[in-house]
């Protein structure tokens, strides 16, 4: 099984960004943890990050024919990235959206996610652990189905 782990704008700066909101782990540390978690589940996790919506859309279109699911933290694109939303929807794959901080406890413009509407679920506010929960969910969903 192959799961895509996609991170959007500014997530490459994790570890330097406000640790009270985003924690202290860097993106490479988070990716390594998720990849290791995937190995334990006999799942290949392929990581990608870009600050450009177009590059993320291109990646999704190129990579999803060989993937079974997507974990995405679109960063700010989650709130206004309509082409990202469409690209995720067009895959037909199960998607779980992850946010390190609780977007519902932040600025009003962050409380709406245009990409979340095409996701099986949205995990927000649980820090980097949210990625691990998303991975566990997708592996279970893909291999066993949840009936939801």
Can you offer a commentary on this structure?
With 148 residues, the chain is an alpha/beta fold. It has one domain (2-144): 3-Layer(aba) Sandwich (Rossmann fold), CATH 3.40.50. The protein is built from six helices and five strands, in the order βααβαβααββα. Strands 2-1-3-4-5 form a five-stranded parallel beta sheet, with helices on both faces. Helix 2 packs parallel to helix 6 (129-144) and helix 3 (53-63) runs parallel beside helix 5 (82-91). The longest helix has 16 residues, at 129-144.
What does the secondary structure layout of this molecule look like, with pairings?
Layout: E1 2-7, H1 19-22, H2 27-40, E2 44-49, H3 53-63, E3 69-73, H4 77-80, H5 82-91, E4 95-99, E5 121-124, H6 129-144
Parallel strand pairs: 1-2, 1-3, 3-4, 4-5
Produce a short descriptive summary.
The chain has one domain: 3-Layer(aba) Sandwich (Rossmann fold), CATH 3.40.50. Helix 3 packs parallel to helix 5.
DSSP summary, beta strand count:
5
N- to C-terminal distance = 21 Å
Structural class: alpha/beta
How many helices? The count is 6
CATH homologous superfamily descriptor: Dehydroquinase, class II
Features:
148 residues, alpha/beta, Rossmann fold, 6 helices, globular
């Amino acid at each position: 099984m192959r799961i895509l782990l996609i991170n959007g704008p500014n997530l490459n700066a994790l570890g330097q960004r406000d640790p009270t909101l985003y924690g202290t782990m860097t993106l490479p540390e988070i990716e390594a943890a998720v990849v290791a978690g995937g190995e334990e589940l006999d799942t290949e996790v392929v990581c990608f990050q870009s600050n450009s919506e177009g590059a993320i859309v291109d990646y999704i279109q190129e990579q999803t024919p060989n993937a079974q699911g997507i974990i995405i933290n679109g960063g700010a694109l989650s709130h206004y990235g309509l082409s990202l939303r469409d690209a995720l929807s067009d895959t037909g794959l199960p998607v779980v959206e992850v946010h390190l901080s609780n977007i519902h406890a932040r600025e009003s413009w962050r409380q709406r996610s245009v990409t979340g509407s095409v996701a099986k679920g949205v995990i927000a506010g649980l820090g980097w652990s949210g990625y691990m929960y998303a991975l566990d969910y997708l592996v279970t969903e893909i291999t066993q189905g949840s009936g939801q």
